[in-house]
Design a protein that fits this description.
mainly alpha, 512 residues, five-stranded mixed beta sheet, 2 domains
Length: 512
Amino acid sequence: MRPGRFFFSEIKNTQAFFALFFFYCLGMLSILRADRLYLDDMGRALYAYADWAPAGRPMAELLSWIFFLGVGTVDASPVTQILAAAELALAALLLCRALGFGFSPFVLAACIPIGLSPYGLENLSYKFDAPFMALSQLLCVLPFLCLRRGGRAGGKGFFPISVLCLFSSASIYQAGMNLYPAVALFICLRAFIAGAGGKGFARLILRFALPFSLAALGYALQVSCWLTGEQYGDYVARHCAIPSFWRLPGKMFANTGDYLSLLYGDWGENSLGALLLLLFFCFCAVFLRRAARGRGCSAISGGRSTARGLMGRCSVILALIFCFLLSPLGVQAPLEFPVWSPRTFCAFGTVLALMLLSLHPGRKSGNCAKISAGFLAGFVSLQLLLFASLYGNMLSVQNDWEDLQLARLAPVIWAFKEEKGLDRVIFTNSAGYSPLMSGIGRRFPLIRRMTVVPLTRNMRWGYEQLKIYGAAVRAGKPLPEDAQLVLYKDTPYFRLEECPGAAAVVTFKNIE
């Protein structure tokens, strides 16, 4: 089969694509309305640089040159973010085709988390970066289409296609490739329940693990070419470090614990977390029930339907489920200092979608099972849609608060600069969150983690924000402990002091 026909034969159902695209755009409406220059966006908007290669993302740099017709960048939002929604809709569509799910209202509802992942929303907030982050996830889906084709694509073709797609995915956005192990583990779970033999099951795991490992190794070997010279900053070096071989197992165990702790902190005390926990229990119950009713894996259980054999099958299933839950951690697991930003767990939405798809009622299911599964899929997707809207609204609220703080601060700093001849500024604390954010932040700690405040100590983006308001200043060196500060101006909102001959020192008076 020709490659073009192979690809386009998988996207016949355009109605399903546009339905998913509509819901993704609906969830993004408040993010688009907020129109927030999100961290790196400020530098790219001010200086029109791409600068993805120094972060180990050479293919994102290349795609940026093609997309923006040059080495510079321009603010083309919301087109870039809408394009990201289209890429995620295509990824969801192809994933369903690869897993053999026909399109129905249930399947479409179950796919909502792929595009509106609670952690992936931060990726969609980036005006310049969103389409590349989404493309990285789309590339991780493409290899699984080969599993449904005969001939070379269904056999040897899977390995080279997987390596190529995963290497490209990592070169565009490293954390995007975490989607691949999530899908691979889900397929392994289904194969085990279907009765794959011990050797066949081991071959299946090896078949998925080898291309992922080879692509990750290839990426790690070539990425040093892009992380050299002055641009290879301390931040990148720190978050690329891998511990020694003897410390690696302990570090991976510690990173796993930190990841689970973050999940608990984000969802442990709110209603949406309780709903996701219910989904997880239903997911476990469905697979365990199928294992108990089916013939399981005869090579592992010895073909006996004894309690011991059943316990063995259930133990394997629970181990696979635990690894499946950890899959969004992915390439972060072996790092010495992982980036714990929410955006690195963008595969979390795919995990939720696969959990919902596992509840798919078969033709022989009773009406009660169909209604229950459909209600759960619809309700989870609705809550994620509301969460996405809430996040976008909080971005807008925080934008207004920071604009207000900057409008008050910029003229005073400019007057200080003109009078004292100093262009160095030190922030001793943060501009803080809007008071409207306090209640939502307590209910959803994740939203506070995703809504980053640039105007804070030791963050360069605060100085870029001031430039947007006409106050071109630079970061000052840390104050010595015995520094004698002289009050320059005290307002209800901030206090500005002078470190004679060195810098202006700003302390915000936050309401929180």
